[in-house]
Amino acid sequence: MGRYSRLRRIQRMDPRQDFEQIYRWIVHYEFPRDYLHGTSIAFLRDYGVPRISRLLDRTQEFERAGQKRYDDTVLLMYEMVREGMDSEHGRAAARHLNRIHGRYRIADEDFLYVLATTVVGPKRWIDRFGWRRLSEQETESLALVGRRTGEMMGIPGVPDTYAAFERFHDDYEREMFAYDPANRRVAAATLRIMASWYPAPARRLASRVALAVLDEPLLEALGFPPEPRRLRTAVHRALRARAVLIRLLPARPERFPRRPEARTYPFGWTLDDLGPHWAHARPPAPLPDETPPGQPSARARPSAPPIPPAPPAPRQETR
Asked: Where are the alpha helices (H) located in the chain, listed in sequence order?
């Protein structure tokens, strides 16, 4: 298979009908590592919003079981799409996801922003550091997977195009990004998780490399100063050199998809393994389109009214 053979097949497809297949090719064949890198950056962006990071800080999920929390988030998305989002397995994964979130009162716009980061984050990372840019069909497939996920979660007003996701994402950040001590605590816990993937002598450098690819509005909201220009330049050049090298390699064969490698589950996982232990005591609610006719639409999670953004706290410059 030629390096661009799969892309040519994708360009002949209709993302409205084939978005799940195109998404699987992005995640498992064309950009497996870049998609995960973009998703990791999306996690950090969530922490730039004080009311999101305060909730995560209160749960202490990242402090107590950060690697599991990271793995579970990636694996739940994988399980939803693995056999098709509307397969029985995909629906079971969506019910389990809703059961986990059902414990918390979270504003719909916060849910929508977190969802938007999983669409916009990978797209922007791949276009910047991937071996090629995403095609129009691939871009819209990311958006349509995001839209279907939002529908299954019962989130109102989910965009149906990438442009609409991106517009909401950027508008929300302009309004809601602000420094809070919880932002820094949750971000620092996540950076420790990412750094732990490397040998101990390289962990401090790994954290600094992660910070070197973040934009200044996000760094300010997280309470981290920008890394020196020399380091940022070196990291960006190294990532672009990696992209050139990958472009010269043959395409990944169909028989060798790259699947998630969860450090929490070295011997494999089941759907019941994913999420905090208390979630299994909560009965799963039907998905919004499974509500019987004549009954009000079931919400798998308590809704919360929009909350005005908190005033920014004084920034802490300690590293």
From this structure: 5-11, 15-25, 32-46, 50-59, 61-82, 88-101, 108-129, 136-153, 162-176, 181-195, 203-212, 216-222, 229-248
Strand duo 303-304 + 106-107: pairing: parallel
DSSP state of 154: T
72-103 pLDDT per residue, tens: 989 999 999 999 999 999 999 999 999 988 77
**Is the pLDDT score of 25 beyond 80?**
yes
Q: Is 175 left (phi over 0), alpha (psi -120 to 50) or beta?
A: alpha
303 forms beta bridges with: 106
User: Taking a C-beta distance cutoff of 8 angstroms, is the pair 88, 287 a contact?
Assistant: no
**Residue closest to 119 by CA, chosen among 134, 98, 101, 100:** 134
pTM: 0.88
DSSP per-residue string spanning 109-135? HHHHHHHHHHHHHHHHHHHHHSSSPPP
First to last CA, the chain: 48
Query: Residue for token digits 């299954």?
Result: 152
